[in-house]
Amino acid sequence: MLDPLSTRRVPDTPLAPPTRTAEPLAEPADRGRSAAGTTAGSRLRMTLAMLGPAFVVSVAYVDPGNFATNMTAGTRYGPMLLWVIAAANVMAVFVQYLACKAGVATGRDLPQLCRAHTPRPLNRTLWLQAELVAMATDLAEFVGGAVALHILFGIPLLPAAFIVAATSLLLLTLAPEGRRRFEIVTAALLLVILAGFVYQAVAAGAWSGALSGMRPRFADTQSILLATGMIGATVMPHVIYLHSSLARSPARSSWERKRRQLRAHRSALFIALGIAGLVNASMLTIAAAALHGTGTQDTLEAFHTGLGSVLGPGAAFAFALALLASGLASSGVGTFAGQVILRGFLGRRIPLTVRRLATMAPPLVVLSLGVEPTQALVLSQVVLSFGVPFALVPLLVFTARRRIMGDLVNRCATTVAAVVVSTVISVLNVLLLVRTFAG
To answer: What is the pTM of this model?
Structure first.
């Protein structure tokens, strides 16, 4: 399996689509491993191996954009919209599972499948929108990281953004040492985010009365629109591409081994996205407990100030530190997702540092123009929302085709569920776009 973090040049010739008949049967040695692989210890080891990719993906679900939407929901409506986060998390697990399934079954990621099974003009169109999504992701991460540095050290936003850029370049030096080290660093940053919000939740007594927010309901039209934004911006297109790449199986893996790998990916997803869901729920409940009814404005700086006033400087520091970790981790994930996009759709690669320098330019230009950070976050979510259907529809189509997926093709019930989830997310993203431009 090719390492998505390597800098090797990839041929532009698509591989033949895998089929059940094309896949070699397990060799005698593989059959022996299959029997051993059914033990609980083997399943545990395989699940632990899949946790790295799952943690990398989960970072995208606690990026600075999530900070803004979840904290706004809690500040305005208390815990009432907690059920929206729960529903969004279930959808995220399902979509990322399908992305894993595509990679495991075919040995290729979603962009590579698009290059192999779509007309050239459509493939180029999908590539262009995916690159826009990658740049929008960078914008959100740079804004979040810059705001965190401004809060922590008083650094102006533009210099802070350059510091974030330099730090993200430093993180990319981990790539030559292998994907595993990057996964470990990303998981560590995720734990920093989790620890920051656990501390704030304890300080705020955030979970008291939180269960009342699990009953689906709305207060007014604005709460419906906010819920639309929370769900519609949950599934990040770039991590669908990335996860399908991280989950790719070796070409000669037996179908039984692929099934075991897929089960391990599913277990790892429940763990990693469960942590991300806990972080998102904590954001909302902390804001509900500490800021609801205080008239706090819907900006990251105002949330920080409000938490400091109500819960003390420790909670405010934990919020800013978590925001900084989120920006740095998400920035690295976005860069590697960009590599998967370029390699998959066009069969080309460029060094990670070169790509990082190229994708840093738009966010730095936006911040240099003096755009307000919260508005910049909204702009990034608009572009991300535009890109969601372009990732979901091909994913649904490919995973439902037996000639592509072989024995791991979606069952009828899975396809129906995928259609429902894809339709809901796509419609909500359209509504989010309409809401943004109408406002």
So the answer is: 0.84
